[in-house]
Write a structure and sequence with these properties.
11 helices; binds magnesium ion; binds 1,3-dihydroxyacetonephosphate; globular; alpha+beta
Length: 390
């Protein structure tokens, strides 16, 4: 049976700043999907991670289906109404366009979809992260699909012996999807060279080289590319099929014990360790730390079992404690050096105006002429143009 798994995610408002959605808001989204999903969906699962709400859907309508996307968009609109009524912070934050145009891609919400022939038993994982961006999945995916130190299946499972194909996107390219396909293991060093730059190169999907089957898909939207200014982080979602010719669930989960430093937390401007958390966890320390949740499912003919909360296991308590220590450690250096993101990532925030203003106060010793600001230069150019035209 050919099925599509779609996950569409948005931040449409939250309690106490960017912590978590209200129960009423989640309920409004649930009600909308329940009411309108009858003929469209085989099944669905709605959850919150931090302040983001994700709708996971199984259906037979294929990728980028307008009716599926509209269902999610309208559910987020219904939720936004509640967010406004309740005075939630950032009501409708990720709904960047007014009118729905057939596909939520480019409109603010994050999307990840894959279409496949359902296996007789189809275990899959749904990951959602808050206060970070899609590059946060680069390292866990590299380790799970390309490193036998993490994934013995690469040595032990016949279906994995040929390795995996990584499709990597250059998310800085805004005119279209700029992608490259690289093969693990032959091109491991090339894959690593790209994936180290998490703000620019992001794993979009991973495919089995033995069967050609898709194993993973990650949402790759960059909100500031759409809005031209900082509108919140690009809190990503990911779907991942596991077992048989794909890594085992445990191989996929193991890298999250590292708690790697990723972009995110306060004002989307810092480096903080990624904490694996229970489903429906909120946000706390320093608008972070960045969190990742994972729900495991089995699926048959598109019907989901109950979600199993994989990071609820006691093992992850000590990881959380380690990540909390690491978070406090990097916070001790405040804005200094590596604690904050590089300028290229901050250029969508108010700091550019500040730097521009300060630029006007710099002097070159000896000339005593204040440097002109970019804004001032533009103003003078307009004035001169007016004079010339006039
Ligand atoms: P089982 O033998 O319990 O199916 O486990 C196989 C496996 O892949 C565990 O990692
Ligand atoms: P979100 O992207 O999760 O809304 O977070 C915004 C933020 O900057 C929190 O400090
Ligand atoms: Mg928010
Ligand atoms: Mg968020």
């Amino acid at each position: 049976m050919k099925l599509t798994l779609s996950v569409i995610k948005a931040d449409i408002g939250s309690i106490g700043g960017h912590i978590c959605p209200s129960r009423q808001l989640l309920e409004a989204v649930r009600q909308h999907v329940n009411q309108y999903s009858n003929k469209l969906l085989r099944d669905h699962y709605i959850s919150a991670t931090g302040d983001d709400i994700a709708i996971v859907m199984s259906h037979e309508r294929g990728m980028a289906d307008p009716a599926i996307h509209k269902l999610a968009w309208d559910a987020f609109l219904a939720g936004t109404e509640v967010a406004k009524q309740q005075g939630l912070y950032g009501a409708g934050q990720d709904l960047l366009k007014d009118a729905f145009s057939g596909n939520v891609r480019g409109m603010g919400p994050a999307v990840a979809e894959m279409e496949f022939e359902e296996r007789p038993n189809e275990p899959f994982l749904f990951f959602a992260a808050d206060k970070t961006d899609p590059g946060a999945f680069n390292l866990p995916l590299y380790l799970a699909f390309a490193d036998p130190m993490n994934t013995p299946g690469l040595m032990l499972a016949p279906g994995m012996a040929q390795g995996f194909r990584f499709v990597i996107m250059d998310v800085n390219h805004t005119e279209g999807d700029r992608i490259i396909e690289l093969q693990a293991p032959e091109e491991l060093y090339d894959i690593a060279a790209l994936l180290r730059d998490t703000e620019r190169y992001v794993v979009e999907s991973i495919w089995s080289r033995a069967s050609g089957e898709q194993a993973a898909v990650v949402s790759t939207s960059r909100l500031h590319n759409i809005a031209g200014k900082y509108t919140g982080k690009d809190d990503p979602v990911m779907l991942l099929r596991v077992q048989k010719d794909f890594p085992a669930t445990g191989e996929v989960l193991a890298p999250y014990a590292i708690g790697p430093l990723v972009a995110g937390a306060m004002r989307g401007s810092h480096q903080m360790p990624l904490m694996p958390v229970r489903l429906d966890s909120g946000i706390s320390y320093f608008d972070g730390p960045p969190i990742v949740s994972c729900a495991a499912f089995a699926m048959h003919r598109g019907k989901f079992t109950e979600a199993v909360d994989v990071f609820a296991h006691p093992f992850w308590d000590s990881v959380r404690s380690h990540v909390a220590d690491k978070a406090q450690e990097i916070r001790r250096q405040g804005f200094f050096g590596a604690a904050m993101l590089p300028m290229s990532e901050l250029e969508y925030t108010g700091i550019m105006e500040k730097l521009d203003r300060l630029n006007g106060r710099f002097i070159v010793r000896g000339s005593e002429q204040p440097q002109r600001t970019v804004a001032g230069k533009k103003k003078r150019a307009r004035k001169e143009e007016g004079v010339l035209l006039g």
